């Protein structure tokens, strides 16, 4: 079968199954993974005939995608902020919306050699994106799950970035440290949220998704305890659900933060909130 015909057939199958909002892109990414080629190859050689082994590998991956498995888990990679990151089921798949949080942080008036920590780092996406842009920042990252710590370390080493990555339940392994910026994309989904049975999140660990107290338990813990780990004038930036912005701002104000506000994601929805101490 030719490349163009295979892409067309797979795109139709994915569209009919209502699995993805980007069926053609999914088909292209899977075929590029099998061929170990960039997407430009598909446009350059649309008439190329694929052999039986390639077709078989592609059909196997397509079947798994039709069953709902995320593209990132099938290929083992995800692009985030120009970085190719290894991804596996031990933690969340980095989302494009989180890049809005990175843009906000890079615009903050932080010290030239700022001390920064990313709590619940997962793949390391936030910490590594910041380290790639601000190499003089002193970057730290923690995660509760050891497999996630190991994954983040592999991504750090892959890109040759300087980030101290530790296993820790939030601030537990950070005793004695103070930061100019604390950032986190913590669990913020309610346990009974119907979205947990839809899309890619079905294949991601609940520990990275679900929090008590209407999804706000971990956020409140970070806001409260973070006061002991922020330098005077330090800033905290937290990602959250688009309907939680008001509640998160209220928590910042409740615990004495100033200059509290929220920022929008790519869809124009409130996706992260922030506050400053002192």
TrEMBL record:
Keywords assigned: Methyltransferase, S-adenosyl-L-methionine, Transferase
Q: Which reaction does it catalyse?
A: L-glutaminyl-[peptide chain release factor] + S-adenosyl-L-methionine = N(5)-methyl-L-glutaminyl-[peptide chain release factor] + S-adenosyl-L-homocysteine + H(+)
The residues covered by the Methyltransferase small domain are: 98-191
Residues bound to S-adenosyl-L-methionine are 120-124, 143, 170, 185
Family matches, as Pfam families: MTS, PrmC_N
> Which of the seven top EC classes does this enzyme belong to?
transferase
Q: What is its EC number?
A: 2.1.1.297
What SUPFAM superfamilies does the record tag this protein with? S-adenosyl-L-methionine-dependent methyltransferases (SSF53335)
UniProt: substrate binding residues: 185-188
Domain Release factor glutamine methyltransferase N-terminal, by residue range, is 6-76
State any single GO MF term: nucleic acid binding
Q: List the InterPro entries.
A: DNA_methylase_N6_adenine_CS (IPR002052), HemK-like (IPR004556), N5-glutamine_MTase (IPR050320), PrmC_N (IPR040758), RF_methyltr_PrmC (IPR019874), SAM-dependent_MTases_sf (IPR029063), Small_mtfrase_dom (IPR007848)
GO biological processes: methylation
Keyword field contains S-adenosyl-L-methionine: yes
PANTHER family in UniProt:
HEMK METHYLTRANSFERASE (PTHR18895), MTRF1L RELEASE FACTOR GLUTAMINE METHYLTRANSFERASE (PTHR18895:SF74)
Query: What is known about what this protein does?
Result: Methylates the class 1 translation termination release factors RF1/PrfA and RF2/PrfB on the glutamine residue of the universally conserved GGQ motif.
Q: Which family does it belong to?
A: Belongs to the protein N5-glutamine methyltransferase family. PrmC subfamily.
Protein name in the entry: Release factor glutamine methyltransferase
* Organism encoding this protein: Ferrimonas aestuarii
Q: What is the lineage of its organism?
A: Bacteria, Pseudomonadati, Pseudomonadota, Gammaproteobacteria, Alteromonadales
